[in-house]
Amino acid sequence: MPTGSCFCEKVKYEYSGDPAMKATCHCLACRKISGSSNTLNLLVPKDRFQVTSGTPKEFSKTHESGMELTIFFCDNCGSVISKEGDADAFRGVVIVQAGTLDDVEGLDMGKPGAELYVKHRASWLPEVAGAGQMQEFS
């Protein structure tokens, strides 16, 4: 069962099974949330995800797409653990931030199947070969 945690390890989680999807995202919100050029996201059905230690703090804001985006993060170290969006594409899933996985081998579970908001991808980043290239979420 894959596990993950924030930087200080106050908030921990686990999920069962394989993610429904693995996608990178270059939207402006993901840039701000990660402090980087993009995020690597694992879409996990809500009924297979659970926080096992700590209580993440949450913050919601309207995303550039118009959906409501909620981030869940550690109130001690600030690490974003997951996100949830109210757009149809994200209903019923937790968007786990892959960088929070405890086992770094978890990042090798196959290439992302989609690359989102490629219109904002940094010009020096190559596209993920074989991944669906989407200008936005749809």
TrEMBL record:
One Pfam family this sequence matches: GFA
Keyword Cytoplasm tagged: no
Domain CENP-V/GFA, chain residue ranges per copy: 2-118
InterPro entries: CENP-V/GFA (IPR006913), Mss4-like_sf (IPR011057)
Family annotation (SUPFAM superfamilies): Mss4-like
GO molecular function: carbon-sulfur lyase activity; metal ion binding
Keyword list, A-Z: Lyase, Metal-binding, Zinc
Family under the similarity heading: Belongs to the Gfa family.
PANTHER family (UniProt xref): DUF636 DOMAIN PROTEIN (AFU_ORTHOLOGUE AFUA_1G03180) (PTHR33337:SF30), GFA DOMAIN-CONTAINING PROTEIN (PTHR33337)
Protein known as: CENP-V/GFA domain-containing protein
